[in-house]
Amino acid sequence: MAQNVSMDEFEALLNESFEIDTPQEGSVVKGKVIAIEAGQAIIDVGYKMEGRVDVKEFANPGEAPEINVGDEVEVFLRSSENARGEAVISREMARREEAWDRLEKAYADEERVEGAIFGRVKGGFTVDLGGAVAFLPGSQVDVRPVRDAGPLMGLKQPFQILKMDRRRGNIVVSRRAILEESRAEQRAEVIGNLTEGQEVDGVVKNITEYGAFVDLGGVDGLLHVTDMAWRRVNHPSEILTIGETIKVQVIKINKDTHRISLGMKQLQEDPWDAVAAKYALDTTHTGRVTNITDYGAFVELEAGVEGLVHVSEMSWTKKNVHPGKIVSTSQEVEVMVLEIDESKRRVSLGLKQTQRNPWEVFAESHPEGTEVEGEVKNITEFGLFVGLEGDIDGMVHLSDLTWEGRGEDVIGDFRKGDMVNAKVTEVDVEKERISLSIKAMDGDPFQDAVGGVKRGTIVTVEVTKIEDGGIEVDYEGAKSFIRRSDLSRDRAEQRPERFGVGDKIDARVTNIDAKTRRLGLSIKAREIAEEKEAVEQFGSSDSGASLGDILGAALNKDDE
């Protein structure tokens, strides 16, 4: 009985020893390299089990394998025996299991892990984390987009694990997070050593439309285009190149956002310090047109000093044209200083002031009454505009087109481009107006006709038209109208129809209106005047003589 117990105990001990010495499949075991042949390492994993592993499984990405006879290594036991009676083992799977344990701990502790980029896949890259393969998205490679990742391949460097799932075998890492963290630390240190107003050296890192980013040794500062030079800079590339080392001044530091504003022009002398003394009011200077806008043109007087020639100060005669029609960019022009505002750093310039006012020149050479010839430039409802010397226009009002009739009736006879002769009647330099008269070229027929006529004069006129209200008559080419009430002293004779066209009659001048160019005539006034004169000469009605007697005596005297 005792012997049987001993045999049971022995069997139990034997089985226990088998369990202890025999490695468990699907686990990582330790082994010893006993030989290397045909690119494979032969490894003894215990209990008289040997397996083969490709030597390349002992190499890190981009490196040569390091494995020698006698080295102790860990391998993954996939199967205790294959068809050849050898154990099926894998160094790569062992490294992967070991790596996952290590990476899970690092992920939980939010620690960095070391790895090397070894391949490119869709959307990013593959990274070897010491046995486990992780995915590095393209957006997580660097703080800025990377066009060529060649220099990063195979290089051991730290990564941050963003996400991992052991069951699915997924690991996502970021290189950018490491760079941003390091950069933030470096920025904080650099910014802590900077002060506003400090002069530092920097390297131009990037150039944009609005300025340039300058590396100050781990931290970037923005050099805005307006702070590059006192003069106008259209694009930063005019004065900077990428990689160039420049001296800049720290203008402002934002401690919260870590943004740094830099300036180059602040290290140069401000040309505005001498502007008032150098560019006195009403003095003329030569400058270069740097920019043209809808409201004027900017002219550079010197580097850093620009003035605006407003569109209203560009030309005496071209009032409603774009400044680009008058000047062009880079053109050298002569300008006059009109105003300086040092507080706003503005200079108002004039282009037309460097030339004489064409209306003043015209007034000096063309006094009133001067005859001129010009082309009809425009026709409006109130008259004609005629082009004159000095690129200016004169206006012929409707009332100055003709002596006879209305201007509205004859303006249709004119066309643009017609050459006309006229006389200057007025020049208003202040209002920039020139008045012309076409009808004045022929003289005033009314003045010619009534030049020697005075009020009270008896004139002989010819009847030209019979109307209900009176008769129209002509005197030496001057038209007049005798109203019905002025046709006779006797009411019964105040009948227009008793006259005929072509009749010659005498009438008394009652009024001369040069403005309306009309003669006031009256037959009635003439008869009354004749009666009065006869009474004075031949006695009054009080003496007993009748009016007929008096007039008869006067007429007899006239016959004698």
Automatic annotation (TrEMBL):
Protein name per UniProt: 30S ribosomal protein S1
Repeat among keywords: yes
Domain of life: Bacteria
This protein's record includes keyword Transmembrane: no
Ranges where the S1 motif domain occurs: 26-92, 110-176, 197-265, 282-352, 369-439, 456-524
GO CC term (a single one): cytosolic small ribosomal subunit
Function: Binds mRNA; thus facilitating recognition of the initiation point. It is needed to translate mRNA with a short Shine-Dalgarno (SD) purine-rich sequence.
Species this protein is from: Octadecabacter ascidiaceicola
GO terms (BP aspect): translation
InterPro entries documented for this protein: NA-bd_OB-fold, Ribos_protein_bS1-like, Ribosomal_bS1, Ribosomal_protein_S1-like, S1_domain
Entry GO MF terms: mRNA binding; structural constituent of ribosome
Keyword terms: Repeat, Ribonucleoprotein, Ribosomal protein, RNA-binding
Entry's family note: Belongs to the bacterial ribosomal protein bS1 family.
Pfam family, one: S1
